[in-house]
Amino acid sequence: MVQKYQSPVRVYKYPFELVMAAYEKRFPTCPLIPVFLGSEILGEWRSADGAVHTVERSCRLRVDAPRLLRKIAGVEHVVFVQRNVLNWRERTLLIDAHNETFSSRVTVKESCRYTVHPENEDWTCFEQSASLDVRSFFGFESTLEKIAMKQYTANVKRGKEVIEHYLSELISQGTSHIPRWTPAPVREEDARSQAMHRCPSPTETDGPSDVPGPDPEMAIADGDKLDADYIERCLGHLTPMQESCLVQLRHWLQETHKGKIPKDEHILRFLRARDFHLEKARDMLCQSLSWRKQHQVDHLLQTWQPPAPLQEFYAGGWHYQDIDGRPLYILRLGQMDTKGLMKAVGEEALLQHVLSVNEEGQKRCEGNTRQFGRPISSWTCLLDLEGLNMRHLWRPGVKALLRMIEVVEDNYPETLGRLLIVRAPRVFPVLWTLVSPFINENTRRKFLIYSGSNYQGPGGLVDYLDKAVIPDFLGGESVCNVPEGGLVPKSLYLTEEEQEQADQLRQWSETYHAASVFHGTPHEVAMEIPEGESVITWDFDILRGDVVFSLYHVKQAPKLGLQEPGARTSGQLIDKNWVLGADYSRVEAPLICREGQSIQGSHVTQLPGIYLLQWQIHSPSESVACSLPGVGDVLTALHSPGPKSKLLYYCEVLASEDFRGSMSSLESCTSRFSQLSATTSSSSSGQSHSGSVVSR
């Protein structure tokens, strides 16, 4: 497996020319870098006007590894070839390095560059990236990877310290300014002479064909980049490898994610939740982004209005902050009639309210970060359990609680900084036994539990909250405006019919997915078929506008990728560079679906691979054969005031032996919409079955 490193942008608040003078002090040897044993110049070239200076060096590095490994490898140092291209005119230094030692077994590449800060020409930016590919190493491949990455990241921080040391040394010696390069007049005879020693062209300076160049996958495009000072100031202290994971995941999202890019604090939470394992964090974040899009969570704070019973009887609310500056949320669960609230508003409304609390918490963390001038990415919850009894262990209520915990754990990781549980009664261990298996171990470590009056005095709340913030109902000085809860009157309970409708809505929300389709921006769902003989079934309702539904088979997976057989991703997945008939093919004739129609259908697959279900806007003037948006379509979509079409859909992959070969097989999809249809018409052709119902 190839290990990669990508640094954030590091800024030296000194001019480029002065930084270059400090950089040159590292050669031919550098006592400040113990592993750097020395270097020698292999070749040197200059352009005719002296603006470009290229140097190729051989550098020897001491092997900082266990003696046994050095003895097996038979070396005490390794050799790297470094090629520097210094352009005084453009004020850039590009550095490419690769290993010469063990190059047949191990490939190490590094690319660095010094450039002028885009917003301040008297500052200098530095970036570096590297990759390590251990193909074979005497059976110690994994050990070598760990040692190499550990040593590399340790030297990353050291490298900046060395440059800063030499900058200070230059300034102390009286060199605080170096004039910028200007072209000097060149006499004709000098020009002819220098032409013989000119700087080679790009193709000539690439060196021998066996010398690897910079890895294109390691390059980060110019534009919105992470600054190391910004990370330290707004996100907190990170190790070099943690910084690298953040930079790589953020860049991957910018390249592949077609929706709103999450904020850096949000991305960092998912990395922390997966101990900075890049692949695991990426998978978790992708699933969460899909969930947010499906449930329109980004607009929740603007659209959610709690029902009256929640506003009056939900005993929770925000209350200043703890001693670390984290927003403080107080929940008086023991005083809350959870059974009554569920009967009055339903489980779905309770979940929406919990999600709105989490969204508000993230917003408050950002505000506190600005207010206190230090990174604050989580909040504290004070949970008062006085009054907790067997009524709170009502089975449907506990089931709903477990569902909420699961949703929050999956989509708001590392947002809880501390949970202070006070006045825990005897029944609490029963509740804890039920819910603790569903709580992440990292989250459980943040729980502090106080029974009785143990929360008072040293070691209690005063260790985490200022005395002026401790609420009055816990003996503090602060008047708390959180609702006191109480029993919900039965007159506010939902009727059986309303409860049935709420349950049906919840079941639909769990089964069906909502999608919005814009001009030039189709909605596509990718489904992986692990074997040739399977059946794809679909069931969808057109809620607004007219769409064209198509089914494609693609030769390569979309950029977002699929995680396991049968898994799915959604959004706009067909690459704009793909060609219909070459990169992907249509396996179902386009079907025009009108507003208000309910469509059910199926397709028997003949080939394994990726199948795409696509919905795009239907326009009478446009040909349905064209599925990829043009520039005009995209501009139209960007300036469109809102969705042009909306739908609810469900799709499923069945094994061929489980499919009965008729529309009745769609019962396996647990379709609710088909039950609302008064009439059904179906048509079949070859290996597909489709039907539509008009219900206006």
User: What percentage of amino acids are in beta strands?
Assistant: 25-35%
Fraction in helix: 25-40%
**Overall structural domain count:** 4
Number of helices: 17
Low-confidence stretches: 194-223, 560-568, 622-642, 660-696
User: What is the name of the CATH class of the largest domain?
Assistant: Alpha Beta
State the secondary-structure class: alpha+beta
Query: How many extended strands?
Result: 24
Radius of gyration: 31 Å
* Global morphology: globular
Biggest sheet, in brief? Answer: 8 strands, antiparallel
CATH superfamily of the largest domain: CRAL-TRIO lipid binding domain
Average predicted local confidence, pLDDT:
80
Named CATH architecture of the largest domain: 3-Layer(aba) Sandwich
The CATH topology of the largest domain is given as Phosphatidylinositol Transfer Protein Sec14p
**Distance from first to last alpha carbon:** 56 Å
Pfam families: CRAL_TRIO (PF00650), CRAL_TRIO_N (PF03765), PRELI (PF04707)
Organism: Mesocricetus auratus
Protein name: SEC14-like protein 5
InterPro entries: CRAL-TRIO_dom (IPR001251), CRAL-TRIO_dom_sf (IPR036865), CRAL/TRIO_N_dom (IPR011074), CRAL/TRIO_N_dom_sf (IPR036273), GOLD_dom (IPR009038), GOLD_dom_sf (IPR036598), PRELI/MSF1_dom (IPR006797), SEC14/CRAL-TRIO_domain (IPR051064)
Summarize the structure in words.
- InterPro entries: CRAL-TRIO_dom, CRAL-TRIO_dom_sf, CRAL/TRIO_N_dom, CRAL/TRIO_N_dom_sf, GOLD_dom, GOLD_dom_sf, PRELI/MSF1_dom, SEC14/CRAL-TRIO_domain.
- It comes from Mesocricetus auratus (Golden hamster).
- Pfam families: CRAL_TRIO, CRAL_TRIO_N, PRELI.
- The chain is of the alpha+beta class.
- It has four domains: about 1-175, Alpha-D-Glucose-1,6-Bisphosphate, Chain A, domain 4 (2-Layer Sandwich); about 230-295, Orthogonal Bundle (Helicase, Ruva Protein, domain 3), CATH 1.10.8; about 300-490, CRAL-TRIO lipid binding domain (Phosphatidylinositol Transfer Protein Sec14p); about 515-560 and about 575-620 and about 645-660, Jelly Rolls (Sandwich), CATH 2.60.120.680.
- The chain is about 30% helix and about 25% strand.
- The protein has 17 helices and 24 strands.
- The strands form four sheets. Strands 1, 2, 3, 4, 5, 6, 7 and 8 form an eight-stranded antiparallel beta sheet that branches.
- A hairpin with a 6-residue loop joins strand 6 and strand 7.
- The chain is globular, with a radius of gyration of 31 Å.
